[in-house]
Write a structure and sequence with these properties.
The structure is a single chain. The protein is an alpha+beta fold. The protein has helices spanning about 55-60, 115-125, 180, 195-200, 245-250, 265-275, 320-330, 335-340, 370-380, 410-425, 435-440, 470-475, 500-510, 515-530, and strands spanning about 35-40, 70, 75-80, 100, 145-150, 155-160, 205-210, 215-220, 235-240, 260, 280-295, 345, 385, 390-395, 395, 400-405, 425-435, 455-460, 535-545, 550, 570. The strands form five sheets. Strands 1, 7, 8, 9, 10, 11, 12, 16, 17, 18 and 19 form an eleven-stranded mixed sheet that branches. A three-stranded antiparallel sheet has the order 4-6-5, with helices on one face. α5 (about 245-250) runs parallel beside α6 (about 265-275), α7 packs antiparallel against α9 and α13 runs antiparallel to α14. About 55% of the residues are buried.
Length: about 575
């Protein structure tokens, strides 16, 4: 098995791309013509605050931008800001209670109006509206106020010292939105503003010219983009739907597409397609983790629709730690990694898998499947087998619904896990949902991962940058999706622990890097050792790009499209 050390940060492979025939100084805005991108998980909205899906964040990142973001080395770099605030430059206060950002000069929205500090303040107010649901509200945790000091200066005040103040308005999941466009879309009205949500006015290299939810997006170069010669592609078609196989084939074999994202395919399938010679495989390892979430609340369809998977009704058996642990023991993670991802995945027992400094060494026991121990554990907990082999206790049967998004690898995983859980007396029904719907965030849909209309569900999660503080904040009490938040929130498990919250608060206050890493490991261990989350595979990001497209640099710490303005068409 390839070691983690050889996998984290493999983006240097892109340096092998052939040199462009046209020198960079000769490229101009639109000179590369048209670019075709395919996301087989179709995009449902261009407003990242209304969806926790990576596909929406990536698409929106070429329109909406943050004050700062992360480069491929995981370093923070200024974006809409003039510079990154630090203690050294005086923009982070010595008591760590405030951070002051300064917008770069002459930044324009795509409609030609200036970006001001009022837009930044408004973005905070939008995402923290008490009647609204913001998928990335965790980015604003611990903020007491955001205020405009002048047209270009914003001061954020925290409710206590914050050693890592670079969270709000940083990364693709925390962009700035225009006050003038969204000011009538606050709170419960947010999902209703389809014109704004589908075609936000942004500062990025592209503007939306046509948006068809869960289908196709058309983009055109932003005429007011701050770099006069960029973007190099004049237009982009961002196709959605189909499956990973079709997306890979469209780059590697037919050449219909220039870029395909998230090729979640068996490794032998990718290898065969890549032999077509029209595309190159892009692989890099970061914090992307395939895992199973346990629902600690009852999703039963017998309950009123707005009470399913809410704190009103605890789960009838998944609140039993013995059951959760048995489910974990029954899984053969090395086999899943091998058949699902090959060298592009590693079996793992951790939720936080990167960077190495915050990857726990304490949980490797789960790498060995143990059906016998799982059965013994359930026997000891009083779950007895019935005539059909399924266990029950006090009239409650261990039968559950296991859902995930639709793709071949995940359906293979479901089938294997269903079989292993049957061996320990747990009956499992399988369900898969179109990825565009599953990750879409529509508050009226029962099929989203936020609504969690199942007992367990599987998908992949990641975070931006190299500090998992905000990622781990998602499991704090009160961060769960519910009707009052338009079913937004990243505490998918409906988990709540005062001990966990206390650990997180300590981490958020800690300045020493070694101690911060130690606390990150403790928080990870709390989640996985209590079997709230069942980690499966640390996944590489796997995409494909046409051999005649240059400029793309893989970035596992931010959006894959972080430098979309610099992509260009090679010519002979």
């Amino acid at each position: 098995m390839t070691s983690k050390a050889t996998l984290w940060g493999a983006a240097a492979a892109l340096a092998l791309m052939p040199a462009a025939a046209i020198a960079a100084e000769e490229r101009t805005r639109g000179s590369s013509g048209h670019l075709n991108i395919i996301y087989w998980q179709a995009v449902s909205t261009m407003n990242v605050f209304l969806s926790g899906g990576t596909k929406e964040m990536n698409a929106a990142s070429i329109v909406l931008e943050p004050l700062a973001r992360f480069n491929p080395e995981g370093e923070l770099v200024p974006w809409l800001a003039e510079y990154v605030p630090t203690l050294e430059n005086g923009s982070v206060s010595e008591d760590l209670m405030t951070i002051t950002w300064t917008l770069a000069e002459d930044i324009l929205w795509s409609d030609g109006t200036p970006v001001t500090s009022a837009d930044v303040v408004f973005t905070y107010e939008y995402c923290n509206h008490p009647e609204g649901g913001c998928a990335y509200r965790d980015r604003f945790a611990g903020i007491e106020s955001v205020e405009a000091l002048d047209e270009r200066t914003i001061r954020i005040t925290f409710d206590e010292p914050r050693p890592n103040p670079h969270v709000a308005f940083v990364g693709a999941g925390s962009p700035i939105i225009q006050k003038a466009q969204f000011e009538n879309c606050m709170g419960a009205r947010a999902p209703e503003c389809t014109d704004a949500n589908f075609a936000p006015i942004g500062t990025g290299p592209y503007v939306v010219t046509d948006f068809r939810p869960n289908d196709v997006i058309q983009f055109e170069a932003n005429p007011n983009f701050r770099v006069p010669t960029q973007p190099y592609f004049q237009t982009i078609t961002w196709a959605g739907g189909g499956d990973a196989t079709g997306a890979a084939r469209a780059v590697f074999q037919t050449g219909e597409m220039d870029y395909a994202w998230n090729l979640q395919l068996a490794p032998e399938v990718i290898e065969q397609m890549a032999a077509g010679g029209q595309g190159e495989l892009l692989v890099d390892f970061g914090p992307l983790i395939e895992h199973i979430n346990i629902n600690l609340t009852d999703p039963s369809p017998d309950l009123p629709v707005d009470e399913r998977s809410t704190k009103l009704h605890p789960h009838p058996f998944l609140t039993d730690k013995a059951v959760r642990r048995a489910l974990s023991l029954a899984i053969d993670r090395p086999l899943l990694a091998e058949i699902g991802f090959g060298e592009m995945g590693l079996p793992t027992c951790n939720f936080v898998v990167a960077p190495p400094a915050v990857s726990s060494p304490n949980n490797d026991a789960c790498l060995e499947q143990d059906i016998d121990q799982a059965n013994a554990l359930l026997d000891e907990a009083g779950w007895e087998r019935g005539p059909d082999g399924i266990r029950s206790r006090d009239g409650v049967r261990l039968e559950k619904l296991f859902q995930t998004s639709t793709n071949a690898v995940r359906q293979d995983f479901q089938a294997l896990i269903q079989q292993w859980w049957r061996e320990i007396g747990v009956d499992t029904r399988l369900r898969n949902v179109d990825a565009g719907v599953f990750f879409g965030g529509d508050p009226s849909s029962l099929d989203t991962f936020q609504r969690f209309s199942a007992d367990v569900q599987m998908y992949a999660s990641t975070f931006e940058g190299t500090d998992p503080t905000s990622f781990l904040e998602q499991r704090r009490c009160g961060r769960h999706p519910r009707p009052e938040t338009q079913w937004q929130g990243q505490n998918i498990n409906r988990f709540c622990s005062e001990d966990y919250d206390a650990l997180w608060l300590e981490k958020s206050r800690e300045a020493d890097p070694d101690r911060r890493a130690e606390l990150a490991i403790k928080l990870n261990d709390y989640l996985v050792q209590n079997y709230i989350i069942l980690p499966l595979v640390a996944r590489g990001r796997v995409s494909a790009i046409s051999t005649d497209v240059g400029g793309m640099v893989m970035n596992v710490w931010d959006s894959e499209h972080w430098n979309q303005a610099e992509w260009y068409r090679r010519t002979e």
